[in-house]
Amino acid sequence: MNTVPLYPRHAEGPLLEALADSPAVLIHGPRQCGKTTLARQVGGSMGYHYISFDDDVARAAADADPGGFVGGLGERVVLDEVQRVPSLFTALKREIDTRRAPGRFLLTGSAQVLLAPALSDSLAGRMEVLQLHPLSQSEIGGGVPNFLDDLFRGTFQTATTRRLGDDLGARIAAGGYPAALARPTARRRANWYRSFVDAQLQRDVRDMARVSALDALPRLLAAAASQTARLYNLSDLASPFQLSRPTIGDYIGLLERLFLIDRVPPWHGNRLDRLVKSPKLHIGDTGLGCALMGVNPGLLARDRALLEQLLETFVFQELRRQAVCQETPPAFYHYRDRDQVEVDVVIERGSAVAGVEVKAAATVTPSDFRGLRKLKRAAAGRFASGVVLYDGEVTAGFGDGMFAVPVRALCEGSPVRLGSSALGMARLA
Hints:
The protein folds into 2 domains: 12-131, P-loop containing nucleotide triphosphate hydrolases (Rossmann fold); 137-417, no CATH class. Helices cover 42% and strands 18% of the residues. It contains 19 helices and 16 strands. The protein has helices at residues 12-21, 35-45, 56-64, 66-71, 88-98, 117-122, 137-141, 147-153, 166-174, 178-181, 186-208, 216-226, 234-238, 245-257, 286-293, 297-302, 304-322, 370-379, 407-412, and strands spanning 24-28, 49-52, 77-80, 105-109, 127-131, 159-160, 230-231, 261-264, 280-283, 331-336, 342-349, 352-359, 383-390, 394-399, 402-406, 416-417. The strands form 3 sheets. It has an 8-stranded mixed β-sheet, sandwiched between helices. It has a 5-stranded parallel β-sheet with strand order 2-3-4-1-5, with helices on one face. Strands 7-9-8 form a 3-stranded antiparallel β-sheet, with helices on both faces. A hairpin with a 2-residue loop joins β14 and β15. The longest helix has 23 residues, at 186-208. The two termini are 18 Å apart. The relative contact order is 0.14.
C-alpha cells in the first residue's frame, strides 16, 4: 500500500499568522490537495479537535441543529469540508459575535463557498481565507521559492543550470496532487487522476447544484483540458454536447467553483484600448489535464506544440502556488491585443506589473520579448521586469529589464552562478 509523504507547505506560515488574529480561518482548494493534512498538522500541534463533514452522522447533526452543534463545540476546532453544511455559517457567525477570540475555528472547504452570497456575508470581517493549491515544484523538491521576488526586483543574475529536458514533460504529466505523486509510474498516476475526477464530481456537485446531465461533467472537464492555455470559448466547449450553451456555461462555473479549472482575466492599463476581452482558460493541474487527455511524458517529448501548451499552464499554476508566500498577494492576468501580441502571464503586485512569457525551446531570441516590451510600454512606470521562461541552461539579461530564465529556476529556485554545479530534483518515472 502506497503511503502519501508529508510535504512542507508554503501556506503553513500564513495559516499560523491568520489563526493568531482571526476568529475563523478557511483553507479552501480542491479535494486531495492537502487541506486536511495541513489543518490536522497545524491544529494537532495547537490542541484543536477535529470533525469532518464527510462523516454522515456529523453532517446530519449539524444540518438538523446548526446552533446547537456549534454551541457544543470545544474551545478550538477543525471543521473539515464545511461546504457540505452551508447552514452552519450563520451559527458560526452568532458564536463568533458572542465571543470573539482568535483562532477558534479552522475550516476547510473543497468548493468556493464564498461565491455563495449568503455564506460570504455571514462571516464577512470574521474569517480569513487561504487558498491551498496542489503541490508546487518547490514544495515537492523542498526548495525555497524566490522567483517572484526576483521578478519584481528585476534581479536575475547571469548564471547557468542544467536543462530539465525530458524531466520537464515528466513533471508536467505528474502534476501536484500528493496522492498521485505517491504512485510509482506515470500510468498509475494517470489512473489516480481519472478516479479522483469521477469521485469528486459524483460527491461534490450533488451538494452544490442540481445537474441534469452529471455524466457530461467529466467529458466537459476533459474538453476544457484540451483547451488549456487558450482563450475561453464557450461555443467551442459546448459544440460536442447535446446541451445548451447557457447550461454548459453553468457547468463551467461549477468546475471553477471546485478549483478544477481557472478563467484568468485579461490585463489592461489606462492607456491600453485594444485589448481582447476574453479570459484565458487553464486546467487546475497539468497532471489532471494530461490524464484526462491521455497524454504521457513520451507523447509530450514527441509533440512540441502540445508540450508548449501544457507548459504554459504548468508555469501559470506554479506561479500561483508560489504566490502564497508573498506578503502582498499578487493578482494574475494574461495579455493579448488585436494584433495577436500577447504575454502568457501578467502579474500585479501592489502597483507593480511584471510579465512572464513561456517557451518550450532551448533557446531565446530578442524577438521572443515582443509581447513583454509592449506590456512594458502599456504599464509605463509600473513595469518591474519581463521574463521569457525556457527550457535552457543560461539566465541572461536582454536589456530594459528583460531576462531569459530557465524553467528549472522557477521550479527549484535561482540557478547557480556560472561555473558552479546545479542540483536537480529527482526525475519522475
